[in-house]
Design brief:
Blueprint (H helix, E strand, L loop, with lengths): L1 E5 L5 H5 L4 E5 L6 H4 L4 E4 L7 H4 L6 E4 L9 H6 L3 E3 L6 H18 L9 E5 L3 H12 L3 E5 L1 H7 L9 H4 L4 E4 L17 H4 L7 E4 L8 H8 L6 E4 L10 H6 L2 E2 L8 H19 L18 E4 L5 H12 L2 H11 L4 H13 L11 E4 L4 H10 L2 E2 L2
Parallel strand pairs: 1-2, 1-3, 3-4, 4-5, 6-7, 6-8, 8-9, 9-10, 10-11, 12-13, 13-14
Helix pairs in contact: 5-6, 13-16
The chain binds 1,4-dihydronicotinamide adenine dinucleotide and the ligand O=C(O)C(=O)[C@H](O)COP(=O)(O)O.
GO cellular component, one term: cytosol
Pfam family, one: 2-Hacid_dh_C
Catalytic activity: 4-phospho-D-erythronate + NAD(+) = (R)-3-hydroxy-2-oxo-4-phosphooxybutanoate + NADH + H(+)
Length: 384
């Protein structure tokens, strides 16, 4: 059996050698010739999968080691009887940690002693948005949820949902919808010129869903006007050929790496390995946990003199500080359009190992219940 796979899927050999021969291909440049004689295709978000790639090939199963599926023509695969699986939720925790870290930086630069004074509108309350809402509520933030598809499906039985316009009134708005162009609630350019005009300079807009959910040209225009909001973008229109002027206009700019914790990536591989094994009727023998190395930093101790908010910010940023990725992306925006696109992909391909908060044991000497609860809410393991 031949498995053609994006070379950026981690642990390909560890998970798939027993199943078939692996051919590694650069995902961004995968062609019909690369996959013609394959039985299985494993991709990431950068490979459009549909008739152009697969017509006339032997492929009978496609797996994407990502949450998002907007790069896959799922309907066409179904019509062709080709098996398909994504990795729902695999890196949701990583995205949530990115948002928490962005929020901590924002609170600090706004001079807020307690970030949880902020109200947060979460747009798209699925795996990522739902997990984020739970954490923020435990941390004492005021959270508003916007998810029209869920509101319609769940009715009065579900949680309280608000309209997009109401969510856009919050101090912070965090986008976590998939990219959709059809249906009752399409998200393509959901934040257009008119909705962006509702935001003001005391607000922060975060997008770690998909770039096309915001009209990037309208956003660039909005950021050049008076009373513009602060913006943190992890995802962009036209990746990898993103707009360098927009990078220059936003507060925090990262190269689509919110979900790039090691845990999240390895879980993505594990999930498509499990799905392929089920599809082929093979036993599932391997687990992500067996491939996670010891983290470079495993313990952190705060003494009884530590201030709760400062300690929490420090611990969070020890695990992940988006400012490092921001600096690298800004530096990568020099050069020609081709060089910039290549540099964007290189930042993602060569991304350093980033571990989730759960990899760090935190000792809080003499800390009260509130401080312990806050650390646990973020996802740290407490050392008793
Ligand atoms: N930046 C990154 O590294 C990553 C980005 N993502 C992106 O985040 C997206 C969300 O991920 P999950 O939460 O796992 O997906 P999910 O499918 O679990 O949840 C998405 C939610 O958005 C809601 N939704 C759909 N249309 C909407 C609309 N018009 N307005 C408001 N809500 C709407 C859905 O009802 C659903 O509850 C993914 O589709 C992917 O595009 C995911 C992982 C990493
Ligand atoms: O899981 C998703 O959806 C994402 O956005 C991934 O983090 C994207 O990673 P790549 O597949 O582009 O490496």
């Amino acid at each position: 059996m031949l498995i053609v796979a994006d070379e950026n899927i981690p642990l390909l050999e560890s998970f798939f050698t027993d199943i078939g021969e692996i051919r590694r291909v650069a995902g961004r440049h995968m062609t019909a010739d690369d996959v013609r004689d394959a039985d299985v295709l494993l991709v990431r978000s950068v490979t459009p999968v549909g008739p152009e790639l697969l017509e006339g090939s032997r492929v009978r199963f496609v797996g994407t080691a990502t949450i998002g599926t907007d790069h896959v023509d799922v309907g066409w695969l179904k019509e062709q009887g080709i098996g398909f699986s994504a990795a729902p939720g695999c890196n949701a925790n990583s995205v949530v940690e990115y948002v928490l870290s962005v929020l901590s930086l924002h609170a600090e630069r706004c001079g807020l002693a307690d970030g949880n004074e902020l109200s947060v509108g979460i747009v798209g309350v699925g795996n990522v948005g739902g997990c984020l809402a739970g954490r923020l509520q435990r941390l004492g933030f005021k959270v508003r949820l916007c998810d029209p598809p869920r509101a319609e499906a769940e009715g009065p039985e579900g949680p309280e949902f608000t309209s997009l316009e109401e969510a856009l009134k919050c101090d912070v708005i965090s986008l976590h919808t998939p990219l959709t162009r059809e249906g009752s609630h399409p998200t393509y350019h959901m934040l257009d010129e008119s909705r962006l005009s509702l935001l003001g300079s005391n607000q922060l807009l975060i997008n770690s869903g998909r770039g096309e959910v915001i009209d990037n040209q309208a956003l660039k225009a909005r950021l050049s006007q008076a009373n513009a909001p602060s913006v943190a973008l992890d995802v962009w229109e036209n990746e990898p050929g993103i707009d360098p002027e927009l990078v220059g206009s936003v507060w925090l700019a990262t190269p689509h790496i919110a979900g790039y914790s090691l845990e999240g990536k390895v879980r993505g591989t594990e999930m498509i390995y499990q799905a392929l094994s089920h599809y082929l009727g093979l036993p599932v023998r391997k687990k992500a946990g067996q491939y996670l190395p010891e983290p470079p930093l495993s313990k952190l101790t705060f003494t009884a003199t530590a201030d709760e908010q400062k300690a929490l910010r420090t611990a969070l940023r020890v695990c992940y500080d988006p400012r490092t990725d921001d600096v690298k992306l800004r530096l990568a925006m020099r050069g020609s359009a081709d060089e910039r696109a290549e540099a964007f992909d290189a930042l993602r391909r060569d991304y350093p190992v980033r571990r989730e908060c759960s990899s760090l044991k935190v000792q809080l000497k003499g800390a009260g219940r509130s401080m312990q609860d806050s650390f646990k809410a973020v996802g740290f393991k407490l050392k008793i």
